[in-house]
From TrEMBL:
Role description: Catalyzes phosphorolysis of the pyrimidine nucleosides uridine, thymidine and 2'-deoxyuridine with the formation of the corresponding pyrimidine base and ribose-1-phosphate.
Gene3D superfamilies with a match to the protein in the record: Nucleoside phosphorylase/phosphoribosyltransferase catalytic domain (3.40.1030.10), Pyrimidine nucleoside phosphorylase-like, C-terminal domain (3.90.1170.30), Transferase, Pyrimidine Nucleoside Phosphorylase, Chain C (1.20.970.10)
Domain of life: Bacteria
Catalytic activity from the UniProt record: thymidine + phosphate = 2-deoxy-alpha-D-ribose 1-phosphate + thymine; 2'-deoxyuridine + phosphate = 2-deoxy-alpha-D-ribose 1-phosphate + uracil; uridine + phosphate = alpha-D-ribose 1-phosphate + uracil
Subunit annotation: Homodimer.
Protein name from the UniProt record: Pyrimidine-nucleoside phosphorylase
Organism (species): Carboxydothermus hydrogenoformans (strain ATCC BAA-161 / DSM 6008 / Z-2901)
Record-listed E.C. numbers: 2.4.2.2
GO biological process, one term: pyrimidine nucleobase metabolic process
Pyrimidine nucleoside phosphorylase C-terminal domain mapped to chain residues: 345-419
Keyword match Electron transport: no
Lineage summary: Bacteria, Bacillati, Bacillota, Clostridia, Thermoanaerobacterales
Length: 442
């Protein structure tokens, strides 16, 4: 077999065999196939696409390019959740303790933020002492002891994906459906998931800007799950505006704490109950999605979910006083307000612009090596549909460095669009994709 022939075959729109895909992916991972041939292969896939069987083979080739996490020492069905990434997306901080509180084992690996999107590990590290680097043994033991652990993903997991992603980033081949779907699913499967719930975002702050594209991505991932024996359900939700009100690490932890006490924003609460309902159902802790959702509502109201968060933070070395009193979390030195210049209704809060604004303040990284400031970020005071008067506060910028403020102020101000007429109310959850089909709510 030769790499050249495989590139040529794909370039000409022919279907690749499992052997050809494995040969290419594993040869590349071992360094035997050079970057330039992989780059050409990725571009051929970008233009010619792949059928369902090829995408599943590509996924498993990436899974088998490195270590697989063995979660068999944890009893029960391990359901993992993955978000395609958004702004103000603190879902894992809420969802993980919430489902753990009703007996779904959570053995989760998370990532760091890059660009305008944040990462769960950075958010957790706003809590003093929180350790995301447990050994594999500590990780399994903690899940068996308290039902939940969240750690950083190791480079040994699906290494082909890491190497391929780096090339995609510089060859304009990131936004290819088969490549995104296989990349995401390979990491979940290598991470030991028995079943998967996908949190697919749609809108300006998301990978996929339109609903149809998001549904296609969700369908591609659900089909991979079906082919490789991991039941997969995808929930598609709005990311035109940020999720909740807070964007930035410790500000998001604060909002997650409020949500686990049943006092969170409506959109975040709805998303967590929906994703969680499916997780409880797939873990076979409830007979239906609806029952799963009811169990989670009860866990929020009874205080069980909040208690689980404290147990989780304590077990990973974090300062529980900061959970009891979020005012003790890292706090920026100053707050600057963005005000409305006219009266009307907010018709848009562009998530991408708000995410970039938070990054300019230091909450996110422009490059992987950048250091982040856990205390800074943005709190929205108005969201889409809200009525505003001239001079009303639209957002607060929590900052430490005057020099970083001006660019952030400009872009956050530009994120808001105000009109004399109210916007049409659209449902926050747009669609659910399962192996049975697509249920649309719009
Ligand atoms: N997230 C991933 O993990 N991979 C992609 O290709 C895109 C988003």
């Amino acid at each position: 077999m030769r790499a050249y022939d495989i590139i040529l075959k794909k370039r000409n729109g022919e279907k690749l065999s499992k052997e050809e895909i494995y040969f290419f992916v594993h040869g590349f991972t071992r360094g035997e196939i050079p970057d330039y041939q992989m780059a050409a292969f990725l571009m051929a896939v970008y233009f010619q696409g792949m059928d369902d069987e090829e995408v599943a083979d590509l996924t498993m080739a990436m899974v088998e390019s490195g270590d697989k996490v063995d979660l068999s020492a944890i009893s029960g069905i391990k359901v993992d959740k993955h978000s395609t990434g958004g702004v103000g997306d603190k879902t894992t901080l809420v969802l993980a303790p919430l489902v753990a509180a009703v007996g779904v084992p959570v053995a989760k690996m998370s990532g760091r933020g890059l660009g305008h999107t944040g990462g769960t590990l950075d958010k957790l590290e706003s809590i003093a002492g929180f350790n995301v680097a447990l050994s594999p043994e500590e990780f399994i033991k903690q899940v068996n002891d308290i039902g939940i652990a969240v750690i950083g993903q190791t480079a040994k997991l699906a290494p082909a994906d890491g190497k391929m992603y780096a090339l995609r980033d510089v060859t304009a081949t990131v936004d290819s459906l088969p490549l995104i779907a296989s990349s995401i699913m390979s990491k979940k499967i290598a991470g030991g998931a028995d079943a998967i719930v996908l949190d697919v975002k749609t809108g300006s702050g998301a990978f996929m800007k339109d609903l149809e594209g998001s549904i296609q991505l969700a369908q591609a991932m659900v089909k991979i799950g079906e082919r490789v024996g991991r039941e997969t359900i995808a929930v598609i939700s709005e990311m035109g505006e940020p999720l909740g009100f807070a964007v930035g690490n410790s500000l998001e932890v604060k909002e997650a704490i409020a949500t686990l006490k049943g006092e969170g924003p409506e959109d975040l609460t709805e998303l967590c109950l929906t994703l969680g309902g499916y997780m409880v159902f797939l873990a076979r802790k409830a007979d239906t999605f609806e029952t799963g959702k009811e169990m989670l509502k009860e866990a929020l109201q009874s205080g069980k979910a909040f208690a689980k968060l404290k147990e989780f933070v304590k077990s990973q070395g974090g300062n529980v006083h900061q959970i009891d009193d979020p005012a003790l979390l890292p706090k920026a030195q100053a707050i600057s307000q963005i005000k409305a210049e006219k009266e009307g209704f907010v018709i848009e809060v562009d998530a991408l612009k708000v995410g970039l604004g938070a990054m300019y303040l230091g909450a996110g990284r422009a490059k992987k090596e950048d250091k982040i400031d856990h205390s800074v970020g943005i709190v929205l005071r108005k969201k889409v549909g809200d009525k505003v008067l001239r001079g009303d506060v639209l957002a607060e910028l929590h900052y430490n460095d005057e020099k970083k403020l001006e660019d952030a102020q400009k872009i956050v101000f530009a994120a808001f669009k105000i009109d004399s007429r109210p916007p049409q109310k659209a449902p926050f959850i747009k669609a659910v994709v399962t192996s049975k089909g697509v249920e649309k709510y719009v």
